[in-house]
Amino acid sequence: MSLVAILAIPRPDSWNFPLFVHVLGAMILVGGLVTATSALAFARGDVRLLRLGYWSLLAVSLPGYVIMRIGAQWVVSKGWDKVDPAPTWLDIGYTVADAGAVLMLIALVVGGIGMRQLRQGKGQGLLKASLIIAVLILAAAVVAIWAMAGKPD
Amino acid sequence: MSFDAWLLALHVLSAFSLVAGIVLFWVLVVAGRRADTPADTLRLSPIAKVGNATVGAGMGGTIVFGVWLAFSFGGYDIWDGWILAALVLWLVGAGLGRRTGEAYMEGPRKAQELEAAGQTGPSAELLAANRTSTGLLMHTLTSIVVVLIIIDMIWRPGA
User: Across the interface, do B50 and A34 touch by the CB < 8 Å criterion?
Assistant: First the structure.
């Protein structure tokens, strides 16, 4: 379905709530990523900001991702799963979501080890690695938002 | 991608920037509730600057690209009910956001005063400023208004 068609034709009402869940989850995910990357980037060894950054990733971005993904599958189940071939923007969305999940898991595990090591005065390098991964996820999310909204052919 | 598609993509990216800033400030609201020393308070300032930038870009981008899209895309008009509702909500959100910012600036201002006076220890007055109930109420209302805008954009009542 082209962008013009999506803009011009009212969506079936049954799509709206799943789409709302998807968009809200994605916004929470991005908000958590922006907070986490900011806190980790500005920490410069400050343990409290390192902890704030990691917790933003764990307690904001991760739930946001789960909500986004539930909403996405819900929307797709309304008929997009029967569209063959799948539109490019849908492929981009899936690719970014799947890769983002793996990257987020790695960032959380690496950062989690870093958090444990903070007690011994270590672990900052691991949290820096989490920061780099979070920046990558954020950049990919921007591409996905552009693709999902602009719907390139 | 057509020009309208670019406008829509930029409008949506701006909306994400706005909500990202609001989420960031929610994290700071929670983190700031324990900050009772000038150092703990001022530690959060660089992150707040990122929030100000994302909210600013989001507010500006949503209104500029949204209005542009309303004029550019043939299927919609600026006076459509759901677009007017979004514009009114945007204005209400901007006013509430400004008042949120004013309320939460009191903490860092107080922290700077205490630091300049050489008082680096815990301060009940500073903690109270960081726990501003007015700021919390304004930020809650701002968040509700933004969620209402998202609902309006998705359901497009009357479109």
Answer: yes
